[in-house]
Amino acid sequence: MSSYTPQTNLPLERSRLVGMILGGVSYGVYLLLTVQALIALMQRPRHGQKIANNRLTLICYTLITFSLGTIDFAGNIKYTEMIWIDLRDAPGGPVALIKNIMHYRINFMAICCGYVAEWLMQALLLYRCFVIWNWARPVMIPMVAIYIGMIVAAIVVLIQAGAGNVFYSINAALAYLTFQVAHTILYTILVAKRLLSLRGQMRQALGEYDSSTYDTIILMVVESAMAYSLFIIIFIIGFAIHSDPVSTLCFLSIIQVQGITQLFIIIRVARGRAVTRAWSTRTTPAAPTALVFVGTTSIPAEGIDVGQATRPDQDSVSELDLISAKLAEVIV
């Protein structure tokens, strides 16, 4: 019995099918983490704290981004069904349908929802960075410029896609992905630098200060940014070398991956899991290492010596409590 291999771009068709399978898996993880995040955010915090206003904001943020991601994923599911069932006899076959995805309104709707979800997720990073740096202009200007550039590039992509251009040949899409990576990496560098600076000042002010709070936050930020950045860099490489199969694989999961990385931080902090083992055995007074949701306080501006704010004639432990708690609130 002889086998028959159709004259078509099999790697591209396989990438669409495998991409949807992986997208379904990542969406399942995204759904599970969303439910866990909502439960954690609606529960009363430990140690008797009141539910802070930022929890309500995060609940709205989680619901909105998940709804947009769901619409995006549902659109991809429907179009995948159309490729091999509803439009199986279309001119060019499945390959033409995969390449010309923007010729159908359902895909235009899906990518619009995906872009808006990504803007909101990047806006959360923007807010975290600004508050940690006390809205310093040297930090705000480059971050806002990159964020605006990302939105402009996305709008250009939508305009060109709406005009009938092949999505994977739109150069503005590559620029959009590059802006996203730049924004995420710059955010990670700025936040890590700020936290390392504050940690050094805390250690200088109190010789036995337990800096595990800062170490934990820095680790969470770097891990989250690294996972998403590596994924999107693979997407950029595939897009740049015009490898449609690689681009298709990444395209179908990018929203879920970004949402998952941010939800990991939200859940961990909401549940108060960022408490080091040393906390239960520590006997020297220091700022608490638990990351919790609290009210509004202020973080010392860059250049201010924390040691001067924690002299023996002042309540140094209380001051450090406020700073550590504020950092926990902002990182979430």
What does this structure look like?
There is one protein chain. With 332 residues, the protein is mainly α. It is 71% helix and 0% strand. It contains 11 helices and no strands. The radius of gyration is 23 Å and the shape is elongated.
Task: Outline the secondary-structure elements.
Elements: H1 10-42, H2 53-86, H3 93-99, H4 105-132, H5 137-162, H6 171-205, H7 212-240, H8 244-251, H9 254-270, H10 278-281, H11 316-331
Using brief descriptors, characterize the structure shown:
mainly alpha, 332 residues, 71% helix, 11 helices
Mean pLDDT: 80
Q: Please give the alpha-carbon distance between the first and last residues.
A: 61 Å
Secondary-structure content class:
mainly alpha
Secondary structure: helix percent:
over 70%
Radius of gyration: 23 Å
Short description:
The chain has 332 residues and is mainly alpha-helical.
